[in-house]
């Protein structure tokens, strides 16, 4: 195992000039010393004396003038103006004192890359729609959503998922019509009114009785897809403004009532557990809860309920949902960790982690995602421990899990299946591709990098995390472009120095990264997952770099080419490395809830659902950040 870390100050290309200050006096002398006056005057000592005199005079004149002009509107001038400044310039001594006052911080010095991207965004004056016709492409994504829905509606309405090849429905998630609810807010965002109407009336008519009558559901899946979907539908249909006004037939209040009713059933998973860790499953019809057959819960599952339950408490005014779910995170705070990293299993009986398997893929992923998102959702609360846990965990990721592949240096996140003392595995699930987006969000808190830099808001660590986010997003994209179909497999392994893994076998031989990425036969399926396009969307919003749109569009085209089913819907694939790929008879709910939503937002106006005003739950359902917007 290589011990060398892929990250150093050198990698970040960050110029510490951010903290450099230039004095007003220095600016004047520097200007004068480089002017013609210098050449004329410095020849004789009288000249030098005259030059000094002129410098003082000029400095005095400039100060007198500055006191009479209005403060400019930019942030730097604001620092100088304000009450303190106004008092100082009210009298002559104030002017003199002002001459020696500590000058304001200058904006950070940008790297050449940043200057190019900054110029680009200034040049576009806020319009990022240059180049390809992004609007037309966004329309194509909307059409894909309508096609996916039509398959579901025609063959599977009321079931959890569509089997697009056999034209049937299947209840893989307990039978609450999960596709309908997962897709509803996507339809609202895209403005597909007919789907909003159809989904709304199904929910009104069938969901209450299903919540009371259905058998076993998984606490996590039901919370993120169904409770989450209902809550964002409530918000996006204007529920907080007029809960009883109907839109397209269904009153927003119906969504909130159903979310509350379902959460009331789910709460038993928390309250019947002997520890702060909830059981993994709930039997809806008798309101009982029980652990998974092995007695354990997934760490990511128990820590990915809080955005939803917090928002429900804030909408209903009933604190119990928030209190129960936050007990989990408060408890996790107290448990021993490996540099902030956690094992993927936890026992609801003992409340302790089980085993040593550490990864950011399945069963680990959204633990890290919700640490920062729950903190973002509740800024101003006293939950700073979440931010601390997040920062510690990312340091742990960088130290213990981030490596570079050979021969071409793709940055990836591996696993520690046997804990920190065991060997490192260069395995990365596609699920890990949520991380670039989360890192970028954690760094700038949802505002653009350009704005964060201008306002001096980024620490060295933020910049390092943003750089890691960009590197990982590239790796995630290459996981798609390395295959024959242009679609990523479920799992890849990276080639590391000294390892003797065989080649990719079936990847696209044109790719530069064909020797870096290894795809094992059992891992070649694609389930229409969203994580990569989710990160491309967040990175595009934050960096404003159009390459993320380009990559997203390439991925969309591959979905269109290989997963679209003529009779309606989209299918998963058994093997992304062979042409034509063998199809798998399933359309996951998150294709409508997440993948197409993120692609649509990636290609559209950047002010729709701004990332500093909304936090997306792990199933891409946006919840408003309380107090973050005047528009809400
Ligand atoms: C979704 O249900 C969520 O994004 C979850 O966090 C991870 N798995 C799927 C999508 O791949």
UniProtKB/TrEMBL annotation:
> Hey, which pathway is this one from?
Protein modification; protein glycosylation
Q: Which Pfam families match?
A: Glyco_hydro_47 (PF01532)
**A GO CC term assigned to this protein in UniProt:** endomembrane system
What catalytic reaction does the record list?
N(4)-(alpha-D-Man-(1->2)-alpha-D-Man-(1->2)-alpha-D-Man-(1->3)-[alpha-D-Man-(1->3)-[alpha-D-Man-(1->2)-alpha-D-Man-(1->6)]-alpha-D-Man-(1->6)]-beta-D-Man-(1->4)-beta-D-GlcNAc-(1->4)-beta-D-GlcNAc)-L-asparaginyl-[protein] (N-glucan mannose isomer 8A1,2,3B1,3) + 3 H2O = N(4)-(alpha-D-Man-(1->3)-[alpha-D-Man-(1->3)-[alpha-D-Man-(1->6)]-alpha-D-Man-(1->6)]-beta-D-Man-(1->4)-beta-D-GlcNAc-(1->4)-beta-D-GlcNAc)-L-asparaginyl-[protein] (N-glucan mannose isomer 5A1,2) + 3 beta-D-mannose; N(4)-(alpha-D-Man-(1->2)-alpha-D-Man-(1->2)-alpha-D-Man-(1->3)-[alpha-D-Man-(1->2)-alpha-D-Man-(1->3)-[alpha-D-Man-(1->2)-alpha-D-Man-(1->6)]-alpha-D-Man-(1->6)]-beta-D-Man-(1->4)-beta-D-GlcNAc-(1->4)-beta-D-GlcNAc)-L-asparaginyl-[protein] (N-glucan mannose isomer 9A1,2,3B1,2,3) + 4 H2O = N(4)-(alpha-D-Man-(1->3)-[alpha-D-Man-(1->3)-[alpha-D-Man-(1->6)]-alpha-D-Man-(1->6)]-beta-D-Man-(1->4)-beta-D-GlcNAc-(1->4)-beta-D-GlcNAc)-L-asparaginyl-[protein] (N-glucan mannose isomer 5A1,2) + 4 beta-D-mannose
Enzyme superclass (EC): hydrolase
Which terms are listed as keywords in the entry? Calcium, Disulfide bond, Glycosidase, Hydrolase, Metal-binding
Name this protein carries in UniProt: alpha-1,2-Mannosidase
Q: Which organism is it from?
A: Forsythia ovata
């Amino acid at each position: 195992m290589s011990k060398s870390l892929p990250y150093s100050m050198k990698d970040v290309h960050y110029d510490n000039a951010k903290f450099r200050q230039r004095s007003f006096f220095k600016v004047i002398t520097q200007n004068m010393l480089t002017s013609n006056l210098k050449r004329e005057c410095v020849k004789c000592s009288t000249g030098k004396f005259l030059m000094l005199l002129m410098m003082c005079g000029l400095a005095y004149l400039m100060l007198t003038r500055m006191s009479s002009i209005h403060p400019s509107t930019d942030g730097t001038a604001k620092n100088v103006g304000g009450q303190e400044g106004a008092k100082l310039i009210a009298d002559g001594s104030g002017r003199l004192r002002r001459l020696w006052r500590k000058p304001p911080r200058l904006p950070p010095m940008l790297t050449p890359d940043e200057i190019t991207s900054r110029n680009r965004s200034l040049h576009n004056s806020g319009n990022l729609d240059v180049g390809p016709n992004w609007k037309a492409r966004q329309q194509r994504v909307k059409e894909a959503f309508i096609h996916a829905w039509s398959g579901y509606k025609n063959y599977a309405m009321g079931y959890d998922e569509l089997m697009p090849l056999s034209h049937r429905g299947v209840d893989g998630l307990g039978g609450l019509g999960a596709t309908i609810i997962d897709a509803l807010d996507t339809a609202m965002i895209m403005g597909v009114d007919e789907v909003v109407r159809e989904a709304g009336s199904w929910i009104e008519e069938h969901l209450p009785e299903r919540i009371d009558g259905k058998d076993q559901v998984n606490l996590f899946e039901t919370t993120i897809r169904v409770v989450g979907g209902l809550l964002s539908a409530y918000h996006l249909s204007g529920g907080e403004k007029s809960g009883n006004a109907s839109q397209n037939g269904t009153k927003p209040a119906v969504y909130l009532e159903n979310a509350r009713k379902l959460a009331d059933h789910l709460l038993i998973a928390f309250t019947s557990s002997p520890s702060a860790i909830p059981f993994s499953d709930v039997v809806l019809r008798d309101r009982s809860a029980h652990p998974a057959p092995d007695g354990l819960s997934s760490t990511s599952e128990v820590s990915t309920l809080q955005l939803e339950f917090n928002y429900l408490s804030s909408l209903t005014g009933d604190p119990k949902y928030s209190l129960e779910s936050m007990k989990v995170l408060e408890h996790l705070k107290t448990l021993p960790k490996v540099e902030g990293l956690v094992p993927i299993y936890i026992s609801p009986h003992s409340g302790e982690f089980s085993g040593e398997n550490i990864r950011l893929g399945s069963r680990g992923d959204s633990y890290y995602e919700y640490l920062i998102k729950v903190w973002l959702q509740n800024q101003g609360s006293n939950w700073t421990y979440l931010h601390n846990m997040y920062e510690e965990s990312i340091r742990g990721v960088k130290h213990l899990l981030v490596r570079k592949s050979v021969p071409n240096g793709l940055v990836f996140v591996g696993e520690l299946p046997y804990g920190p003392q065991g060997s490192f595995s260069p395995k990365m699930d596609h699920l890990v591709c949520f991380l670039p987006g989360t890192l970028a969000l954690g760094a700038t808190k949802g505002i653009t990098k350009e704005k964060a830099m201008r306002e001096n808001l980024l620490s060295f660590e933020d910049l390092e995390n943003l750089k890691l986010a960009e590197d990982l997003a590239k790796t995630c994209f290459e996981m798609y472009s390395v295959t024959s179909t242009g679609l990523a497999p479920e799992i890849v392994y990276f080639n590391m120095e000294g390892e003797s893994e065989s080649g990719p076998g079936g990847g696209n031989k044109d790719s530069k990264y064909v020797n870096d990425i290894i795809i094992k036969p059992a891992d070649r399926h694609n389930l229409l997952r969203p994580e990569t396009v989710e990160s491309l969307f967040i990175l595009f919003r934050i960096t404003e770099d159009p390459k993320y749109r380009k990559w997203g569009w390439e991925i969309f085209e591959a979905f269109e080419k290989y997963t679209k089913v003529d009779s309606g819907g989209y299918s998963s694939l058994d093997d992304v490395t062979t042409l034509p790929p063998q199809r798998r008879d399933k359309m996951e709910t998150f294709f409508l809830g997440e993948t197409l939503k993120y692609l649509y937002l990636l290609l559209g106006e950047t002010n729709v659902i701004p990332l500093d005003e909304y936090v997306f739950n792990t199933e891409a359902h946006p919840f408003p950040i309380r107090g973050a917007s005047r528009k809400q």
